[in-house]
Design goal:
By secondary structure, the protein is α+β, with helices and mostly antiparallel strands. The chain is about 45% helix and about 15% strand. It contains ten helices and eight strands. The strands form two sheets. Strands 1-2-4-3 form a four-stranded antiparallel sheet, with helices on one face. It has a four-stranded antiparallel sheet with strand order 5-6-8-7. β5 (about 225) and β6 (about 230-235) form a beta hairpin.
């Protein structure tokens, strides 16, 4: 925008010069002797020295092109270096204020609808991604997506193990940097700060704006499953029936889907179902954003990558 404003200002500057010239030359006033050039002024022949100056100016621009290419390369490298410095963990969260790309927000919010969660300290919030060890490919994909945009450390997530009830469990995880500009998301998804419900996620009233096909794909990869002869199920046990009805209404209106809500078999727990007749609409929506590992959740076979 700064470059555009500079070019416009330069264009208007030269427009003013030419405007003044044509105004005086086409209708010279009495003060100018009613002629152009004015009386007593001997004009320079434009095809002599002015033409030579023009040729030198244009040719110098062509000669110096490699020089300016190097200058711009240095500037670009400096900007990349600055970006790399910004993405280190040493930047205070108060200085991490965005703005955030729409796709980044959709991915993060889609993960909160699924397995993702957030943590908050006194001044900032961060996103946490946790999956079973066998889903390491998906975690690596999420990490690469966010790292390229400066949202997390370069450290590649690894598979860890721990013993629970005498069994070895494998898992992988990573966190984003802490951003003060993530607080509004945390406060919307975790509005309860006291009582035994603290830390429980809720669906914000503004969810429709960020419920893009990318967010829907992330949600399906996190919480979706293929049910034979029925369609795709989203496990939404952590949300209330009112919240589920609200988000179902948004999906039906936004993407012309027909969705059903079924009891999960426990009190106040419900799941969302996309019946098989929805697949011709649903699959083209989310397929461009699905990781190949999770294509089975759409009843599709993972392509051979060998």
């Amino acid at each position: 925008m700064g470059v555009a404003l500079f070019i416009v200002s330069e264009a208007l500057f030269f427009l003013a010069i030419f405007w003044a010239f044509f105004h005086s030359a086409l209708s010279p006033t009495v003060e100018l002797g009613a002629q152009w050039p004015p009386m007593g002024i001997e004009a320079i022949n434009p095809f002599e020295l002015p033409l030579l100056n023009t040729v030198i100016l244009l040719s110098s621009g062509n000669v110096n092109r490699p020089k300016w290419a190097n200058v711009f390369k240095i500037i670009n490298n400096s900007m990349v270096s600055t970006f790399s410095t910004y993405t280190t963990g040493r930047i205070p969260s108060t200085k991490r204020i965005g703005p955030h790309n729409y796709d980044v927000l959709c991915l993060l919010i889609g993960s909160l609808l699924g397995d993702g969660h957030m943590e908050k300290d006194a001044i900032g919030s961060r996103f946490c991604f946790y999956q079973k060890g066998e889903h390491i490919e998906y975690i690596l994909w999420l990490h690469q997506f966010l790292f390229k945009r400066g949202y997390c450390k370069e450290d590649i997530p690894k598979i860890h193990s721990r013993i629970i009830d005498g069994k070895v469990n494998y898992y992988c995880r990573f966190r984003t940097y802490t951003f003060s500009s993530f607080n509004w998301i945390y406060d919307s998804f975790y509005p309860i700060v006291k009582s035994e419900l603290k830390g429980k996620k809720v669906i914000p009233v503004w969810i429709e704006e960020y419920l893009s096909p990318l967010a829907l794909a992330i949600w399906i990869m996190d919480d979706g499953s293929w049910i034979n002869n029925r369609g795709i199920k989203l496990s939404t046990n952590c949300f209330t029936l009112k919240e589920i009805k609200s988000i179902v209404s948004i999906l039906e209106k936004k993407y012309d889907l027909k969705i059903s809500i079924h009891s999960a078999g426990a009190i106040d727990q419900y799941n969302i179902y996309f019946p098989k007749k929805n697949l011709p609409i649903l699959i083209p929506l989310v397929l461009p954003y699905m990781h190949p590992f999770f294509l089975y959740k759409l009843n599709m076979v993972r392509p051979n990558t060998l």
